[in-house]
């Protein structure tokens, strides 16, 4: 028996089906609302709107749960690798040993970037933000890697996924090297995905990079924690742009642009900038907390709050523990970590933050981890983008495979001027 909700409009009753997810979440199916009632729903920011049914990622913001294809992110962070988590997200199941080997070989085979693309990198102004460069370069990939009609649709899609996962990592490291005026380091076939990235970032002709398993593991965890987060702003952008049936490179490029914003992925850079300011102004977070609570002040505590989590972000817990581990391992003493911990403690005991359910999110401690790995501040959001690629790809794939697929085209309530006549220029006031 179909569960329904009743809606009464102008004395007429309409029945709206209720849809249930596998974890018991409920939604009102309003897909026939306008046809039947003439009404649309209005939900600025889409906080109450489900844009799709998805079987990729489950999160419960009240309980602080995050699972990829049913598997808790805590288990993946402890036992898996980024490449394996990417396979899981994209294909729905953990790979067998053979599948994982094949996937790793494919990632290696597609790791080089067309040499002609170097000219682009070299001609961006030196101060260009790496996220702007990355989104342009990902879009440009389509020109260098056009469709492969002879391969068949499924094989072409798999090659495109692999290219993206592998080349974006190479391009990110190359843009860093070029921005410093250093020689680009090529990917190596004998290194794992994460070790390869670190080597491309930090190896130099005068000081060979020494691969450290703990650092490689920290990067694996960092990227696993960022791999997907259901219908967040950048993923929604990928689905929306992809819904016009544009090529995957263009859809991912749109996701990168969305992620760049300081309210989304750009928050990891903004957190460090905020902690640096607190540090240079004497180390007392008090005035910053006061500003964050002042409604007249646009300042927000970066790395705090989340649209869905109304409790501690489960990723932030893992990131905080990793932060302690990696600083200890590297014997580093980062004053920003002490400030972050004091700030967190003060905020978590402050009625404003308690009443508003504001807890640290994934970005609060991730910047300190990235600093410890030697990643420069302006590359932080690029690191997030590399991690989020499997999520964007799997969400795009799910949306194009969906038999209920539709061009995304929201409506609006128009509140502008009513019809009026065009005034010739001489008669305008
Ligand atoms: N500091 C101070 N106050 C905050 C903060 C914050 N970080 N976040 C939310 N609030 C307050 C708002 O001022 C508002 O208060 P009011 O109701 O008294 O006016 C209330 O909490 C609700 O805020 P909204 O902006 O409506 O909440 P929303 O769910 O849209 O915001 C967001 C989520 C954008 C993440 C917000 O918490 C924020 O700006 N945080 C800082 C930026 C950040 O860390 N972003 C990363 C998010 S995680 C990610 O994208 C990977």
Describe this structure in words.
By secondary structure, this protein is mainly alpha-helical. Helix content is 52%, strand content 7%. It is built from 18 helices and six strands. The strands form two sheets. The protein has a three-stranded antiparallel β-sheet with strand order 1-2-3. It has a three-stranded antiparallel β-sheet with strand order 4-5-6. α6 (130-144) packs antiparallel against α11 (248-260). The longest helix is centred in the middle third of the chain and has 27 residues, at 153-179. The radius of gyration is 24 Å and the shape is globular. The termini are far apart. Residues 263-265, 267, 292, 300-307, 356, 358, 361-363 line the site of acetyl coenzyme *A.
Quick recap:
With 429 residues, the chain is mostly helical.
Q: Biggest sheet, strands in spatial order?
A: 1-2-3
N-to-C span = 63 Å
Q: Can you list the ligands bound to this structure?
A: acetyl coenzyme *A
Output mean pLDDT. 94
Largest sheet: 3 strands, antiparallel
Q: How many DSSP H or I helices?
A: 18
Strands, count: 6
Shape: globular
Helix content: 40-55%
Unreliable stretches covering 5 or more consecutive residues: none
Gyration radius, in Å: 24 Å
Strand coverage percent = 5-15%
* Topology order in helix (H) and strand (E) letters: EEEHEEEHHHHHHHHHHHHHHHHH
């Amino acid at each position: 028996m179909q569960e329904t909700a009743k809606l009464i409009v102008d004395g007429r009753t309409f029945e709206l089906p209720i849809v249930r997810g596998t974890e018991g979440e409920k939604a009102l199916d309003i897909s026939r609302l306008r046809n039947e009632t003439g009404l649309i729903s209005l939900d600025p920011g889409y906080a109450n709107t489900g844009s799709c049914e998805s079987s990729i990622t489950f999160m419960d913001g009240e309980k602080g749960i995050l699972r990829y294809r049913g598997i808790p992110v805590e288990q993946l962070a402890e036992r898996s690798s980024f490449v394996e988590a990417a396979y899981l997200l994209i294909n729905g199941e953990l790979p067998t040993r053979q599948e994982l080997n094949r996937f790793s070989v494919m990632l290696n085979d597609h790791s080089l970037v067309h040499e002609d693309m170097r000219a682009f990198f070299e001609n961006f102004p030196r101060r260009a933000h790496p996220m702007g460069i990355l989104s342009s370069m990902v879009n440009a990939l389509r020109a260098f890697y056009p469709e492969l009609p002879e391969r068949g649709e499924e094989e072409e899609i798999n090659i495109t996924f692999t290219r993206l996962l592998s080349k974006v990592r190479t391009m990110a490291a190359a843009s860093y090297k070029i921005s410093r005026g250093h020689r680009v380091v090529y990917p190596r076939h004998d290194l794992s995905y994460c070790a390869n990235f670190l080597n491309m970032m930090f190896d130099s002709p005068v000081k060979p990079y020494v691969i450290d398993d703990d650092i490689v593991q920290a990067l694996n965890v960092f990227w696993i924690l960022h791999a997907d987060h259901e219908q967040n702003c950048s993923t929604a952008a990928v689905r929306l742009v992809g819904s016009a049936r544009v090529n995957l490179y263009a859809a991912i490029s749109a996701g990168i642009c969305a992620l760049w914003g300081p309210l989304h992925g750009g928050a990891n850079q903004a957190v460090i900038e905020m902690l640096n300011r607190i540090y240079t102004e004497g180390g007392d977070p008090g005035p910053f907390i006061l500003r964050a609570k002042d409604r007249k002040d646009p300042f927000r505590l970066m790395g705090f709050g989340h649209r869905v989590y109304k409790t501690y972000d489960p990723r932030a817990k893992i990131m905080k523990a990793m932060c302690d581990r990696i600083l200890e391992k590297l014997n580093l003493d980062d004053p920003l970590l002490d400030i972050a911990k004091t700030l967190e403690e003060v905020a978590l005991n402050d009625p404003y933050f308690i009443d508003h359910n504001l807890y640290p999110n994934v970005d609060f401690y991730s910047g300190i981890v990235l600093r410890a790995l030697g990643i420069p501040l302006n590359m932080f959001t690029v690191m997030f983008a590399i991690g989020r690629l499997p999520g964007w790809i799997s969400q795009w794939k799910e949306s194009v495979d969906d038999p209920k697929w539709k061009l995304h085209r929201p409506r609006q309530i128009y509140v502008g001027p009513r019809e009026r006549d065009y005034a010739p220029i001489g008669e305008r006031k």
